[in-house]
């Protein structure tokens, strides 16, 4: 049961879905466009390998996922200074000598479970995530938003489990600080 591919329709039929998928994970419109374009090129080159056992869109999303993995692996090799990710951020500023928080956790809103339903919350969170470097953002999105398990994330990003937990800690700490400033301390409109 081999299906016939129609590359001339890919952009119209699947372009928006692929772009939104890439944009949601990269938060970079230009990068998302490049990844979709690379996906279409790879699909054209590998069209003969399409067996028709899946839908055309599923096949294209699979190629896009691999393109994204390749991108994050390629860009994870940054200089040591950039890789430390703590130049602008000193976690000791928030912890005492015993490792306890110097300042208590802020109360988000009277009903914290409702924060996720608010458009403004997501706008602030996305803005804060834009301040994370690509590696920290990828780890946070995969773990917290896509609910991937540690083994999947480590394999996808080619990192060790201890590196994963350190990166998650750094991402969460930076996001906590950003959210406290930009979400908790802002005046209601």
Describe this structure in words.
- This protein is 61% helix and 0% strand.
- About 10% of the residues have low confidence.
- The chain is built from 8 helices and no strands.
- The relative contact order is 0.10.
- The chain starts with 6 loop residues before the first helix and ends in a 5-residue tail after the last helix.
- With 189 residues, it is mostly helical.
- The longest helix is centred in the C-terminal third of the chain and has 24 residues.
- It is elongated, with a radius of gyration of 20 Å.
- It folds into 2 domains: 68 residues, Rna Polymerase Sigma Factor, Chain: A; 105 residues, Arc Repressor Mutant, subunit A (Orthogonal Bundle), CATH 1.10.10.
List the helices and strands and how they pair.
Elements: H1 7-26, H2 29-45, H3 56-74, H4 80-84, H5 119-129, H6 134-145, H7 150-157, H8 161-184
Indicate the CATH topology of the largest domain.
Arc Repressor Mutant, subunit A
Class from helix and strand fractions: mainly alpha
CATH C-level class of the largest domain: Mainly Alpha
Q: What is the count of β-strands?
A: 0
Estimate the helix proportion, in percent.
Answer: 55-70%
Q: List the uncertain runs.
A: 78-87, 104-111
Our count of domains comes out at: 2
Question: Beta-strand level of the residues, as a percent range?
Answer: under 5%
Shape type: elongated
The end-to-end span amounts to 57 Å
Determine the CATH superfamily of the largest domain.
Winged helix-like DNA-binding domain superfamily/Winged helix DNA-binding domain
């Amino acid at each position: 049961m081999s299906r016939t591919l129609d590359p001339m329709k890919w952009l119209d039929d699947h372009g928006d879905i692929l772009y939104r998928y890439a944009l949601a994970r990269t938060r970079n419109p230009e990068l998302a466009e490049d990844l979709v374009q690379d996906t279409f090129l790879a699909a054209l080159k590998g069209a003969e390998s399409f067996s028709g056992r899946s839908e055309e869109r599923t096949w294209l999303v699979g190629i896009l996922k691999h393109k994204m993995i390749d991108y994050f692996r390629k860009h994870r090799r940054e200089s040591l200074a950039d890789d430390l990710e703590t130049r602008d951020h000193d976690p000791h500023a928030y912890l005492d000598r015993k490792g306890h928080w110097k300042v208590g956790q802020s109360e988000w809103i009277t009903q914290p479970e409702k924060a996720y339903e608010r458009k403004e919350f997501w706008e602030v969170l996305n803005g804060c995530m834009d301040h994370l470097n690509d590696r920290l953002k990828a780890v946070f999105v995969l773990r917290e938003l896509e609910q991937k398990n540690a083994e999947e994330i480590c394999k996808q990003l080619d990192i060790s489990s201890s590196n994963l937990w350190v990166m998650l800690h750094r991402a969460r700490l930076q996001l906590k600080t950003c959210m406290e400033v930009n979400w908790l301390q802002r005046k209601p409109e």
